[in-house]
């Protein structure tokens, strides 16, 4: 049997460890400070991303096939349910249009320019997902070239799913709200209670056991109840106001009994994302 | 007679396909694989590397070098955190190679060695991510919710692909 840890090997292991820690610290520092990764990394990511499409496209095609068949089987039932909702929707839409026009006119009269609510959308498809249990990341097929910037919010279906973490030329990484890392998911959000009072706060963590977003450190006395809607508040930079996040599922005391902790059920299914849109503030 | 594709080329192309399949499978079946609170992480890249350890010629294929290359691409493309898998992949390949040399070459010892390899890979990945605050689960949570399901999934993949890939390498030996 050969000797497993000769002194030469030990030196190699230690050198590797040092290089590894150095590189990790460096990439974390770059990710936290700069808007884009270094040009070499960007270039590499673009090439790999391109090659990935060759494999990912047929795989996603197969997936679409299965989903289509499944959808077909549910169609009748769904159709019944949706029909009953259509009338309501048209009414809301018309009302929405009228209100929007009125809002615009009022804003013009008041000389208010763009408020926090306005945003444009960039649509993108998901290429692949990071095969890792803690880094909840997906990679999408739009990057710098399409106008994507770091920290922009990403929406899928009904609500917010995450933010852009890294931007390359033709693809970018989206960190989902289900990521448990300390440095991610700090969204400014607000909850409108039953009595019309607004509670502002930020997402502090994510409870992976029950799939709930946690909004911590709330000292407001406003009464919140299950089912209250949560939206982004537009405070603090790049994220526009009024993106739907989810509904309140539980209100609890925090560990020290001083502040409240609100558990929020995310609106979008974080594990079934195919197409996303990136919200760009006006 | 048709010229045969050298095994080294097949190995490299297969390595990249396995690499991309990891992400694609995670994306396609994310509803099942990442259902809360468990996480079943496919590791086809490592599977392909380890099967090359079992059946191929480690020196001729420059396995450790390719493990480092694919590890670097993995870091860059999937996680964006450099310096993790670029060292873990070659280490696991080396470890599996060393252990496999001591065992009789059959399916069961391969199974055992792959079990060891996945455990080392996932655990070291967890340690590295915990170190920079990317993973914040406790060790018991990690073992139950990540390591055990991941091992189960990957051992199934291994059992399915052991004999076909073995046949592929054997047909190129002659």
Automatic annotation (TrEMBL), chain A:
Residues 126-278 form the Rod shape-determining protein MreC beta-barrel core domain. Pfam families: MreC (PF04085). Keywords: Cell shape, Coiled coil. Residues 72-109 form a coiled coil. Gene3D superfamilies: Rod shape-determining protein MreC, domain 1 (2.40.10.340), Rod shape-determining protein MreC, domain 2 (2.40.10.350), Single helix bin (1.20.5.490). Belongs to the MreC family. Involved in formation and maintenance of cell shape. PANTHER family: CELL SHAPE-DETERMINING PROTEIN MREC. This is Cell shape-determining protein MreC. It comes from Lentilactobacillus diolivorans. The lineage of its organism: Bacteria, Bacillati, Bacillota, Bacilli, Lactobacillales. The gene is mreC.
Automatic annotation (TrEMBL), chain B:
The chain crosses the membrane at residues 6-25, 37-56, 76-100, 112-132, 152-169. GO terms for biological process: regulation of cell shape. Keywords: Cell membrane, Cell shape, Membrane, Transmembrane, Transmembrane helix. It is found in: Cell membrane. It comes from the Bacteria. It is a multi-pass membrane protein. GO terms for cellular component: plasma membrane. The keyword Transmembrane applies. Signal peptide: none annotated. Pfam families: MreD. Belongs to the MreD family. NCBIfam families: shape_MreD (TIGR03426). This is Rod shape-determining protein MreD. The lineage of its organism: Bacteria, Bacillati, Bacillota, Bacilli, Lactobacillales.
């Amino acid at each position: 049997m050969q000797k497993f840890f000769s002194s030469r090997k030990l030196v190699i292991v230690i050198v590797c460890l040092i290089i590894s820690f150095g590189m990790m610290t460096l990439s974390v520092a770059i990710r936290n400070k700069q808007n884009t990764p270094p040009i070499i990394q960007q270039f590499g990511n673009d090439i790999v991303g391109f090659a990935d499409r060759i494999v990912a496209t047929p795989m996603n095609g197969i997936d679409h096939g299965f989903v289509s068949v499944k959808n077909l089987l549910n169609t009748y039932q769904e159709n019944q349910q949706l029909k009953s909702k259509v009338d309501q929707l048209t009414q809301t839409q018309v009302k929405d249009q009228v209100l929007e026009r009125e809002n615009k006119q009022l804003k013009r009269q008041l000389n208010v320019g763009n408020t926090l609510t306005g945003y444009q959308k960039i649509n993108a498809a998901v290429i692949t997902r990071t095969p890792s249990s803690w880094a909840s990341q997906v990679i999408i097929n739009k990057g710098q070239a399409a106008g994507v910037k770091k920290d922009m919010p990403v929406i899928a279906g009904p609500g917010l799913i995450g933010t852009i973490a890294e931007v390359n030329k033709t693809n970018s990484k989206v960190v989902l709200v289900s990521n448990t890392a300390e440095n991610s998911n700090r969204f400014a959000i607000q909850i409108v209670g039953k009595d019309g009072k607004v509670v502002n706060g930020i997402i502090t963590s994510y409870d992976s056991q029950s799939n709930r977003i946690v909004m911590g450190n709330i000292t407001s006395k406003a009464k919140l109840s299950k089912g209250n809607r949560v939206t982004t508040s537009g405070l603090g930079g790049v994220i526009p106001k009024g993106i739907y996040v989810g509904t309140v599922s539980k209100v609890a005391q925090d560990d020290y009994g001083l502040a409240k902790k609100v558990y929020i059920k995310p609106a979008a299914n974080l594990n079934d994302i195919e197409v996303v849109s990136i919200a760009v503030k006006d | 007679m048709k010229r045969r594709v050298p095994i080294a080329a097949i190995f490299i192309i297969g390595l990249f396909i396995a690499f991309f399949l990891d992400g694609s499978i995670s994306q396609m079946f994310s509803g099942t694989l990442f259902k809360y609170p468990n996480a079943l992480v496919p590791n086809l890249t490592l599977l392909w590397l380890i099967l090359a350890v079992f059946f191929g010629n480690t020196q001729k294929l420059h396995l450790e070098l390719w493990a480092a290359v694919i590890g670097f691409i993995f870091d860059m493309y999937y996680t964006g955190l450099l310096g993790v898998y670029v060292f873990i992949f070659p280490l696991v390949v080396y470890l599996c190679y060393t252990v496999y040399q001591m065992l009789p070459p059959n399916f069961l010892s391969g199974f055992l060695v792959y079990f060891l390899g996945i455990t080392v890979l996932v655990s070291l990945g967890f340690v590295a991510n915990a170190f920079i605050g990317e993973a914040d689960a406790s060790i018991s949570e990690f073992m139950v919710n990540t390591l055990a399901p991941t091992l189960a999934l990957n051992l199934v993949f291994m059992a399915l692909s052991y004999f076909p890939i073995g046949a592929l390498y054997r047909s190129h030996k002659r």
